[in-house]
Amino acid sequence: MLKRILVPLDGSDFSEAVLPYAEALAQALEAELILLHVNVEPVTEFESPSSPFSPPIEVKKAKAEAREYIKSVCYKLEQKGLRATYLIRDGGVAETILDAAEVLQANMIAMTTHGRTGLLHLLLGSVAEQVVRRSPILVSLIRPQEK
């Protein structure tokens, strides 16, 4: 029986396309939705010393925005009568999703996928594919329709 569904969200409409499916499943099974946002640190090796932006300030701002975003999505789910919590972690996206699923004892991961193939898949890779290949638990992928 599914008790906890981990839902990775990156703040985009694309990633949120999984929410109606996850909500319906959580409601039907009386499962908890755990929203996960992964902060990805910018690579600083290639920054110019004369850059007008201070990376620590930009990173701090991005993290604050991510926290407000994930809290608001969680609040909306709670207003619908669902049990929902959120988690924010730093790190590699696929690795962090898998680690969070293990630590939280999630029974399922529900996320979106671009469904890229060929050269685009080779160049960009796929977080969803990494999660599916390495996850010991059920992974449900939703491929949103293009607008």
For the structure shown, list the relevant keywords.
single chain, 147 residues, alpha/beta, Rossmann fold, five-stranded parallel sheet, 6 helices
**CATH level 1 name:** Alpha Beta
Q: What is the overall silhouette?
A: globular
How many helix segments? 6
- Computed over alpha carbons, the radius of gyration is 16 Å
CATH homologous superfamily placement: HUPs
Largest sheet: 5 strands, parallel
Derived structural class: alpha/beta
Strand-residue proportion: 15-25%
H/E element sequence:
EHHEHEHEHHE
| Number of distinct beta strands | 5
Explain the overall architecture.
The protein is an alpha/beta fold. The chain has one domain (4-42, 51-142): Rossmann fold, CATH 3.40.50. Helix content is 45%, strand content 20%. Strands 3-2-1-4-5 form a five-stranded parallel β-sheet, with helices on both faces. The chain is globular, with a radius of gyration of 16 Å. The model is unreliable at 119-124 (pLDDT under 50).
Question: What would a concise description of this structure say?
Answer:
By secondary structure, the protein is of the alpha/beta class.
Outline the secondary-structure elements.
Layout: E1 4-8, H1 13-16, H2 19-29, E2 32-39, H3 55-79, E3 84-90, H4 93-103, E4 108-112, H5 118-124, H6 127-134, E5 138-142
